[in-house]
Design goal:
ATP-binding, binds adenosine-5'-triphosphate, ABC_transporter-like_ATP-bd, Rossmann fold, 3 domains, AAA+_ATPase, nucleotide-binding, six-stranded mixed beta sheet
Length: 509
């Protein structure tokens, strides 16, 4: 039991034994075993909804498993809440940031401690922080405000915070999704060194085989709540792992690019928009997207891409400039979106494109519910018609939900994304605006979504694809633009794109 003896020091191992977690009648984890050796880098793989988050939440004390035990450094421990887990040296780093943007890095670190005194002696704390940092493999600017540092630096701070809080077993939940490939390699490489030095044990949830191959020693693979495989990374290929992840499922075949670009569908002219703080986020930006064309926008996050998409989605007022769709002025009203058959795949779909408490079926029907055949006479909702349609879409888009009536907020992140896709792409589309549509999705879902986007283009849709994933942009785009400080600074045909050149422009050179 906790309290009997102190938390282990140095790198220690964690095991989950016969973990079962039921939510009502649904079994999210079925007798799963996970063994993470001390001083190892362990990857946890599985499709969206396989049970990865549920398993780590059971270990961290966020959930009380229906059955099963957790061993920390080979001792059985009762972890009934995250505080117990922290006291035992377990920490968690999420894909989204938890630091307070308005505070400095130093303030974030010190105030995260359980034992912060009522009056903080900052001079002394800063000295101790410097001493702590000198032992760490990476440095962060202690006096900088978190809002002023890059995504890569923020993720380093999140990790440093865990180490500062003396956590020696780190669970990383898709830690690199907001980082560029370069930043990801830097952060994971540094953690790998600490693991090799015996200071740390890591369990990382990821969808990226490249990271597993480059940094992990061992891997555990879940499939539909069950243990589907495990082993040493050196003895497995990405193909082996993919097969264990998806079982007998077939990957979506990518359609090839067919047809030429037609007339201009979407036109943005000298658009100016501000961010929430009043700063200029989009400056005099002009672009066009033709029918049957995918225009990709590359850029490091925070260069105005979000505000551009928000203006096009009607979530932000433009300060000046014009947007036209098929030649007509466009102000992002629901009526215009409908008339021009526009679809939107925004970022953070649970927050931006769903009603969390409503069912999966209702969320899929959201944009359709007041149109025939779902509505008659404009007011009577034909429930059974849209339910049937939702059920078809749930199957077609392989959305893992217990029933169509389950609240959408109970779905795993990837499955929320699929539900929004089913709604936005499950009908005729003439203009599609997508922002990081594959963020957090497993490779089978990515293949499916890329195929859907390409198919929409081949059917003549004009697609504006904003993404932080260069591989995705290069695979899908016809033309590629680079956005930096609110402006488009570079344009190239994707077929002759030069990565170094794009990278240079992304960095503002
Ligand atoms: N609080 C909850 N109530 C009901 N069902 C839940 C709850 N949390 C998770 N589930 C279900 O358990 C299953 C596993 O979800 P989990 O979030 O663990 O998947 P995951 O492997 O982490 O997926 P992703 O890669 O999409 O994040 C899903 O089908 C999900 O709908």
């Amino acid at each position: 039991m906790i309290g009997d003896d102190p938390a282990p020091t140095g790198a220690f191992g964690v095991e989950a034994i016969a973990m079962t977690m039921r939510f009502g009648a649904f079994t999210a984890l079925d007798n799963v075993e996970l063994k993470v050796r001390p001083g190892s880098f362990h990857a946890l793989l599985g499709e969206n909804g396989a049970g990865k988050s549920t398993l780590v939440k059971c270990i961290m004390g966020y959930y009380r498993p229906t059955e099963g035990d957790v061993l920390i450094a080979e001792r059985e421990r009762a972890i009934s809440n995250p505080k117990d887990a922290h006291a035992l040296g377990l920490g968690m780093v999420y894909q989204h940031f938890t630091l307070v943007p308005a505070m400095t890095v130093a303030e974030n670190l010190v105030l995260a401690r359980d034992d912060v005194p009522a009056v903080v002696n900052w001079a002394k704390e800063k000295q101790e922080l410097e001493a702590f940092l000198s032992r760490m493999p990476f440095r962060v600017p202690l006096d900088a405000k978190v809002s002023d540092i890059s995504a890569g630096e923020r993720q380093k701070c999140e990790i440093l915070k865990q180490l500062y809080l003396k956590r020696r077993f780190l669970i990383l939940d898709e830690p690199t999704s907001v980082l560029t490939p370069g930043e990801a390699d830097e952060v994971l490489g540094m953690l790998r060194k600490m693991v090799e030095a015996g200071e740390l044990t890591i369990l990382m949830i990821t969808h990226k085989f490249r990271e597993v191959m480059a940094f992990a020693d061992e891997v555990t693979i879940l499939r539909r709540g069950k243990l589907a495989g495990r082993g040493k990374v050196s003895e497995l290929t990405p193909d082996d792992m993919a097969r264990m992840m998806i079982g007998a499922e077939q990957l979506t075949v990518q359609p090839s690019r067919t047809g030429e670009a037609g007339t201009v569908r979407l036109e943005v002219e000298k658009l100016v928009a501000r961010d929430d703080a009043g700063g200029l986020a989009v400056q005099d930006l002009s672009l066009t997207v033709r029918a049957g064309e995918i225009v990709g926008i590359a850029g490091v996050s925070g260069n105005g891409q979000r505000q551009l998409v928000e203006v096009l989605a009607g979530q932000r007022e433009a300060e000046s400039g014009a947007v036209r769709v098929s030649g007509a002025p466009y102000s992002a009203s629901r009526e215009e979106m409908r008339r021009h058959k526009m679809s939107l795949l925004p970022e953070e779909p649970l927050k931006n494109a769903c009603v969390g408490g409503m069912s999966v079926a209702d969320n899929i029907a959201l944009r359709e519910f007041d149109r025939a055949p779902f509505a008659r006479g404009g007011w009577w909702l034909n429930k059974s018609a849209f339910r049937k349609d939702a059920t078809t879409k749930i199957n077609r888009y392989k959305i893992k939900t217990r029933t169509p009536d389950t609240p959408i907020s109970a779905l795993s992140g990837g499955n929320v994304q699929r539900a929004v896709l089913a709604r936005e792409l499950g009908h005729d589309v003439e203009v599609l605006i997508a922002a990081n549509p594959c963020f957090g999705l497993d490779f089978a879902a990515v293949a499916q979504i890329h195929a859907e986007i390409m198919a929409a283009r081949n059917r003549g849709a004009a697609v504006l694809l904003v993404s932080e994933d260069l591989d995705e942009l290069l695979e899908l785009s016809d033309r590629l633009l680079v956005m930096f400080h609110g402006q488009l600074v570079y344009e190239t045909r994707a077929s002759d794109a030069d990565l170094t050149e794009i990278g240079r422009h992304m960095a503002g050179h």
